[in-house]
Amino acid sequence: MKKAVIASLIFLGSCKSTESINRFAKSAAAGTAEISRSTLSFGAICRLYDQSALASYTDTSLYAKSGHKAKHCEAYRSADSMVNLINLTLVNYFTLLQEVSDKKLLAYDARDLVNSLASIQSGLNPDLSLSEEKVSAVKGLLNTILNEPLKWYRYKKLVSTMQQNDSALSRVLRAYSFILDSALNGEINQAKENYTSFVYAPLYEWARTPVEKVWINQQYLLFMQSLDKEKASIHKSVLMLILMQKDHYLLAFGKPPVGFAYTEGEISQDIVLLNKMILELIQLIK
Q1: Pick from 137, 136, 134: nearest CA to 166
Q2: Please, which of 28, 101, 203, 273 could form a disulfide with 22 given CB 3.0 to 4.6 Å?
Q3: Nearest 5°: CA angle at 247, between 243 and 253?
Q4: Which is more confident, 52 or 83?
Q5: What is the CA angle 135-139-141, rounded to 5?
Q6: Which run of H or of E encompasses 194?
Q7: Are 36 and 105 in contact (CB under 8 A)?
Q8: Which pTM does this prediction carry?
Q9: Closest Cα to residue 205, out of 82, 63, 58, 77?
Q10: Nearest residue to 40 (alpha-carbon basis) of 221, 244, 278, 227
Q11: What is the tens place of the pLDDT at every residue in 99-117?
Q12: What per-residue string of b and e applies to 210-234 under the rule 16 or more CB within 10 Å gives b?
C-alpha cells in the first residue's frame, strides 16, 4: 500500500512537470510543419523565377514555348531534399517529445514512429553546402528518434534525453535558419533582380502607350509584392525556429540559478507567442 502511494505521488509529480514540455512540443511540431508548408522551395524558385523561365514573358519564339528548363534546377531539387529531411526530423523529434510527455501516458510504444522513419537516414543528402558538423547533428537527432528507448518515460528520463540532444537540436535549428534566412532569401532577392532585368525592363521599353506602361508597372508591383510576402514568411519562420531553440534549452536545463520552476512562466508566454506566429504564417500564404 505504501509503495502504491509513493508511486502515485511520483506519477502525479511527473505529470505536472511534463505539462510545459508537452505544450511546447505540440506547438513546436505544428510550427515546424507549417514552415515546410508555407515557405517557397528552391525548386519552385528555379522553375518560376530563373532567367530562362522568365524569358517566356518577353520571348515569343518557339524556344519560349518549348518548356525549356534551367540546367541547374537539379541542384535546387537536391537542396530541397535536404531541407525536407531537416524539417521532417524536427517535426518527428518534437512529436516524440509531445507523445512521451503526455500526462495521460502510461507506456509509449514507438513502433509506428520508427517504421515511418526507418528509411530516412539512408536518404540524408548533404548537397546544400552544410558542414559535416551540421549533417552529423541531423543524423544525431534521427538516431535519437529511431533508437531511444521510449517506454515508461517520466520527467527525469525525458529531461535527460532533452539535455543530451539540445546541442544537436540547436545545430539543426541554426542550420535550418541559415538555409531559410540566407540561402532561400538570397534566391528570392535574385529572382527579384531577374524579373526587373529580364521582364520589367524590356517590357517597359517596348511599351508604346501610357496605358501599356501603367499596366506593366502594375504587374511589376504585384510580382514584387508576392515575393515580399515570401520573404515575410521566411522571416516569421526564422523567428519561430529561434524561439524553439531557446525554449528547448530552458526546458532541458532551466534558467540559472533558480532552475526549471522559474522558467514555466516564460515558457507559457513563449508558447502563446509561438502559436500566434503560426497563425500569422498561415495568414501570409492565404
Answers
A1: 137
A2: 101
A3: 150
A4: 83
A5: 120
A6: helix 185-195
A7: no
A8: 0.80
A9: 58
A10: 227
A11: 888 877 656 666 666 666 6
A12: eeeeeebeeebeebeeebeebbebb
Grid coordinates given for 86: 531537416
Cβ contacts of 196 within 8 Å, gap of 6 or more: 220
Q: Are 66 and 4 in contact (CB under 8 A)?
A: no
Residues 6+ apart with CB under 8 A from 118: 146
pLDDT digits (tens, 9 = 90+) for 32-44: 999 999 998 988 8
Look up residue 39 and give its DSSP letter: S
Contact 22, 103 (CB under 8 A): yes
Contact yes or no for 102/22 (Cβ under 8 A)? yes
Nearest CA to 70 among 58, 83, 55?
55
Q: Which CB contacts under 8 angstroms, 24+ apart, belong to 189-198?
A: 190/49, 191/45, 191/48, 191/49, 191/227, 192/224, 192/227, 194/49, 194/50, 194/51, 194/54, 195/49, 195/54, 195/220, 195/223, 195/224, 196/220, 198/51, 198/54, 198/55, 198/57, 198/58
Q: In sequence order, which residues have a C-beta less than 8 Å from that of residue 187 and are 6 or more positions away?
A: 42, 45, 49
